[in-house]
Amino acid sequence: MNQDFTREQIKTMIIAELPSIIKTDPEVRDFVVKVTESRYAGRKKTKDRIDRILDELKRDREKRDKKWDAQEKKWEAQEKKWEAQDKRWEEENKKQAEKWAAQDKRWEEENKKQAEKWAAWEKKWEEERKKQDEKWEKNQEAIDRMLDSIEALNKKHDATIGALGARWGLQSEGAFRKGLRSILEKSFGVKVERYWDFDTDGVVFGRPDQIEMDVIIHNGTLILCEIKSSASKSQVYTFWKKKRFYEKKHGRKADRALIISPMVDKKAGETAEKLGIEVFGYVQDVTWDE
């Protein structure tokens, strides 16, 4: 029975059957080789080509081997140099370590000597300080005794001077006031009059007594003044009472109230400020046109 196959079917059959036929049928195999030899090199030609390639590969490998051998020799030479350098470094490090060890030993010995010296100096300083402290304490005791003696002597002198001052004060007070009035009249052109009166009601001293005070009239201004060699807190109060006594009796308020004294107690100054009394240590400090 005749059967017609298409081109594709024949191609498929050849691809499927040809490999097994080539293996079993020498004639077919030779035919295939003859048909395809124009497209593929023969065995000998292929072998020659492979041999050439292998020879080229061998030469390339030999060149590379020579290069590697030369490079390895260079590396070996460099390695020897590094080994020699490492050896020199080790020797130098060893020398330096020995030097540092010797230096450390010298430093330790020197530090020990210095520590011993400092300990000796500290001992001397401590002993000297102790001696100086003892001397200081003795001197301080002597100074304390001297101060106690001076204080006792001062108390004695104060008592003596106080007794003399009680006698001398009344006489010197008058001379001081007289001199100061003279300065006021001659240098400042003000008239100072001594005011005397009698306090029958005891307003000033708490009992009937004579009242004395300086009165200054300057350009129509009434100024009551107390001129004293020294002024205490109680004397400030007394002057203030005298001022009130004068104002009540004469029906005129004083424009100013002054205390002129070179020696004014601190509390006396504070009291005067509260009472509106002006205090001057020197007559030159007074302003008359207020």
TrEMBL record:
Pfam family, one: DUF3782
SUPFAM superfamilies: Restriction endonuclease-like (SSF52980)
InterPro entries: DUF3782, PDDEXK_10, Restrct_endonuc-II-like
Protein species of origin: uncultured Desulfobacteraceae bacterium
Record-given protein name: DUF3782 domain-containing protein
Chain intervals for the UniProt region annotation (Disordered): 61-96
